[in-house]
Every structure is written in C-alpha cells, then in structure tokens.
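Q: What structure does this chain adopt?
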Amino acid sequence: MKIIKVVPEAYREQAGVQECFKGEEVKTCATNDENCKKFGCCEDKERDCYEKNEWWSGCLANCTAGMTDSFGDDKPWNCDRIEQPVMV
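A:
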C-alpha cells in the first residue's frame, strides 16, 4: 500500500483515494539506517545512496567499490549510486 504514496496528489484525488492517506506523513527519503534503494535518496543531504548488493543499499558520505563494512558479512560494496527509487 505504500507504493501509492508516491503517486502525485492530483492522481490520488482523481482516483478518489486521497482520504486513505489523510493525516499520514509521506516519507520521501531514507534515514541513515534504512535501505535507501526503495527511496532513491537520503534524508541526510551530506550522504548519497550507494548499493552494496542486490539486497542492501545504504546512505553513505562516500563509497569506494570493493570496500567492506563492520556489519559482519565482509561482503564488498559495489558502490553503484542509486538516484531513483527501485523496487526491493
């Protein structure tokens, strides 16, 4: 149901579904601890969304292909920059 939130207000109004979202805040960008791939942007404007693999993308200040992180899996980041929302 969250996907419909990215539909412009005019289309929601035309379809008669705007009442479904009354009072809900529409979230447009990811926090630093969320998978940002589904948003395509980060709330922290000092960070960009980078892909680690097909399952995870994170908001990072910078990214170097092949780097690893301290989350325990030792898998390298591919560091493709995500600029548009992607279905995950």
